[in-house]
């Protein structure tokens, strides 16, 4: 199934995510909230130190019930997200906020995914005005999510540079899966699996996508 998306907007959000003025928690959650009228954008920074990578590799699953559904997700990412949640609650619960976009890169994209799910549960009034972008997103959820839960992510877009190793972690054989809109950019074999994850290469390939210089492929779950 093919569908167009606004890659100029995606590139804008990615650049903002790289340059945002982040607040840091004691568990290495780095977040930034920007407000413009009745719209808010929540950014999560990519991995930037050994503490982040420590949590990245805590991939044993953990039950998660904060969003009204009982499912399992990545233990390390959930721990980091929960350390940021008290700082985000004011924005999430503020009914004067009529639109929220959640954005993250790498480690931060995993946190953005959990944040998006939390907002979808707490703010049902935002069902048509909640958006998310995850760039170089690792796998967060274990297989077996109900269709109702998967549908909550219908406006969260994974954008993956082909061959990016981070988007294949934790490994599929451990039961982790991506959900919903998954867009692949770039060309297979253009970068090594490590280089494909670098921010400058995401910027380059997003620019190419925005200018229509390459094919974009969408894969859907659910």
In short:
By secondary structure, this protein is an alpha/beta fold. The protein is built from six helices and twelve strands.
What is the name of the CATH class?
A: Alpha Beta
Order of helices and strands: HEEEHEEHEHEEHEEEHE
Poorly predicted regions are 49-57
On the 0 to 100 scale, the average pLDDT is 81
Class inferred from helices and paired strands: alpha/beta
Task: Assign the CATH topology.
Answer: Rossmann fold
The percent range for strand residues is 15-25%
Measured between the Cα atoms of the first and last residue, the distance is 12 Å
CATH architecture: 3-Layer(aba) Sandwich
How does this structure look, described?
The protein is of the alpha/beta class and 222 residues long. The chain has a single domain, classed as Rossmann fold, CATH 3.40.50. It is 32% helix and 24% strand. The strands form 3 sheets. The chain has an 8-stranded mixed beta sheet with strand order 1-2-3-6-7-9-11-12, sandwiched between helices. It has a two-stranded antiparallel sheet with strand order 4-5. Strands 8-10 form a two-stranded antiparallel sheet. β4 and β5 form a beta hairpin. The termini are close together. About 4% of the residues have low confidence.
What key attributes describe this structure?
Rossmann fold, globular, alpha/beta, 32% helix, single chain, two-stranded antiparallel sheet, 12 strands
């Amino acid at each position: 199934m093919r569908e167009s998306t606004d890659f100029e907007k995606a590139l804008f959000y990615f650049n903002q995510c790289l340059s945002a003025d982040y607040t840091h928690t004691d568990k290495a959650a780095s977040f930034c909230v920007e407000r413009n009228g009745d719209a808010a954008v929540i950014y999560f920074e990519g991995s930037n130190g050994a503490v982040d990578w420590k949590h990245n590799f805590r991939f044993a699953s953990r039950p998660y019930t904060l969003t009204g559904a009982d499912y399992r997700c990545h233990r390390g990412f959930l721990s980091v997200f929960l350390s940021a949640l008290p700082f985000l609650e004011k924005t999430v619960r503020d009914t004067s906020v009529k639109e929220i976009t959640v954005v993250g890169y790498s480690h931060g994209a995993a946190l953005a995914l959990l944040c998006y799910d939390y907002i979808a549960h707490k703010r049902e009034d935002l069902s048509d005005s909640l958006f998310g972008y995850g760039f170089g997103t690792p796998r967060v959820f274990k297989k077996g999510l109900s269709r109702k839960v998967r549908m909550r992510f219908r406006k969260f877009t994974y954008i993956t540079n082909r061959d990016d190793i981070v988007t294949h972690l934790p490994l599929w054989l451990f039961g982790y899966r991506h959900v919903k809109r998954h867009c692949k950019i770039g060309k297979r074999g253009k970068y090594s699996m490590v280089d494909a994850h670098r921010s400058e290469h995401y910027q380059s390939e997003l620019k190419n996508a925005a200018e229509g210089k390459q094919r974009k492929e969408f894969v859907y779950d659910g």
